[in-house]
Input
Amino acid sequence: MMACFEAYGDKWWVADTDIDGWSAATHWKNYLQDQNGNWLLAREGICINKSGGHTRAVCDKNYYENSTYPNGAFGQGSYLTWRACLYKSSTNQWNGCSSWTTVLNSN
Output
C-alpha cells in the first residue's frame, strides 16, 4: 500500500499494491491555527481504495491553505498529518499502518 498527498488540488492518491483481501487507505487529520496560535483539529477522515489489488484511487478534498487568513479557526495556518494503512471496512479494522507524516498545506 502507498499513499501520497497532492497539494495542488488537495487530492489523496492511494495505491493498493497487493491482492490480499485488505483495502489500501490513508487516515488523515487537518489542523488549523486559531487567532491565539493554538493548533486545533478541524477535520479528520479516511480515503479508501476499494478497487482491489494493483489499483490506485483518488479522493478529492478541499482544505484551507496554510496562507489563508482567516481560516476556519479565525487564524492563519493549516497542516495535514496522515498515515497509510491496510483497512478492512467490514470490521473497521486497521493494520500495518505507516508512521504519521506531517506537511504544511501549501501549493
